[in-house]
Design a protein that fits this description.
By secondary structure, the chain is an all-alpha fold. 66% of the residues lie in helices and 2% in strands. Helix 6 runs parallel beside helix 16.
Length: 413
């Protein structure tokens, strides 16, 4: 049998109904989760590795072999399978091989990992504090009901719907043309995409929170314990805080386990006795590894969903370049920022003007690199697969009747 088609990506893939598509992608994840959370007294590490091998090998080609009729869902399932692979690879294989630990994670720890992107899980205090004694766990007062989540969900829905009506008028050719010929309009597209992505991820976050609150907490929750999935990245004052704090934390626990901690631990062993300098080197390299994994994931999205000739000729390596430059900017920012803080007076570094300059630095860098990230996804046509479009027909009808604003829209109006 010729397996070459598995490496060609794009439109040859088998189209499945959405329920079957979701079931197919969820099955290996559920099986791997069951293997990982089974105590090693029941299944030895070696047995787990043997049982998990076909599922780890088989999970990645799923995105290259199957698709549904929703492009956004295809991207999400590509993201899901990629991270299922790296998380269970670390638990079942890399941890035991590189660190000598058992291939096991408790159900509770796994639950906390899955939900830590949104919810704070208190840990026992390591020492006495003003409010807690050593060993005590903070108690959160439940001050909200499940229905408080619903208006927040609809507010973000409205943002996606309104701005999505604007984006749907731009073809991939329009996006490229605006980037090359109309910098001011491209800047507004950049800002709009950031806002829409923030709201779209927050819709996902609020949906997950609503499920958790109803299923696990009986309909009430502590607002202090929950965060938004995306925390206003458009107001970031450093590239480091943009990626580490304000951008979505959906994959944070996975990438902390691998590649961050794995890379750091391997380097620490290789460099011998830990010092302040070697610790800094290990952390820097581990952070760089996170950007590599992120870049590879985004390359995988495009590779899986675009025809191979289009991906190879126009987009191969683009996401890798984007994230490598981001990693370099983070390193540059840390070095220069530390140096400037030592030399400049505190009255300046903590002033509103300094914060404005830091914000401007982030915006300029993000806008400068934005085309590298965007153009591949417009070729995929993600702007036409916005599931939040109740008001879209009415907005477009109004725009079509208002010629004065047509220059601010794409050719598909």
């Amino acid at each position: 049998m010729d397996y070459q088609h598995l490496f060609e990506g794009g439109s040859w893939r088998t189209v499945l109904p959405i329920p079957i598509h979701l079931l197919l992608f969820a099955t290996p994840a559920v099986i791997l989760g069951h293997i990982a959370t089974t105590p090693t007294s029941t299944l030895s590490t070696q047995t787990k590795q043997i049982l998990s091998f076909p599922f780890l090998i088989g999970v990645i080609p799923l995105s290259m072999a199957f698709m549904c009729d929703q492009k956004i869902l295809d991207i999400l399932t590509s993201l899901f399978t990629y991270n299922v692979f790296i998380r269970f690879l670390e638990i079942i294989w890399l941890g035991p091989v590189l660190q000598g630990r058992e291939a096991y994670i408790s159900s509770r720890d796994f639950h906390i990992e899955l939900w830590s992107c949104l919810r704070t899980f208190p840990k026992p205090a390591k020492e006495d504090t003003k409010t807690l004694k050593k060993g005590e766990t903070k108690t959160y007062a439940k001050d909200r009901k499940f229905y408080h989540i619903i208006p927040l969900w609809f507010a973000n829905y409205l943002i996606c719907d309104v701005l999505g009506a604007w984006f749907v008028t731009f073809s991939a050719h329009d996006a490229k043309r605006v980037y090359e010929e109309n910098t001011p309009l491209f800047f507004f597209i950049f800002a709009g995409v950031v806002v829409v992505m923030t709201s779209a991820f927050n819709i996902l976050g609020y949906t997950l929170q609503l499920f958790y609150v109803l299923y696990y907490e009986g309909g009430s929750y502590s607002s202090e314990q929950w965060r938004e999935l995306m925390e206003n990245p458009i107001i970031s004052t450093s590239i480091t805080s943009l990626w580490a704090e304000r951008w979505h934390r959906l994959l944070r626990s996975t990438w902390l386990a691998f590649p961050y901690r794995t890379t750091r631990n391997v380097l620490q062993k290789a460099l011998g006795k830990p010092t302040k300098k070697t610790a800094a080197i290990c952390s820097a390299v581990a952070s760089f590894a996170v950007f590599i994994v992120s870049a590879t994931m985004h390359e995988f999205f495009l590779y899986s969903n675009l025809d191979w000739p289009i991906y190879r000729e126009f987009y191969m390596g683009g996401q890798m370049c984007y994230f490598l430059v981001q990693a370099a900017l983070v390193a540059f920012e840390k070095v220069v920022g530390t140096s400037l803080r030592r030399r400049l007076p505190k009255s300046f570094t903590e002033s509103l003007f300094a914060l404005f300059l830091q914000w401007l630095w982030v915006v300029v860098c993000a806008f400068w690199l934005f085309h590298m990230f965007l153009l591949g996804y417009t070729t995929l046509g993600v702007q036409f697969n916005n599931p939040f479009h109740f008001f879209q027909p009415y907005i477009l009808e109004y725009v079509r009747k208002t010629p004065a604003i047509h220059p601010f829209f794409g050719s598909l109006l």
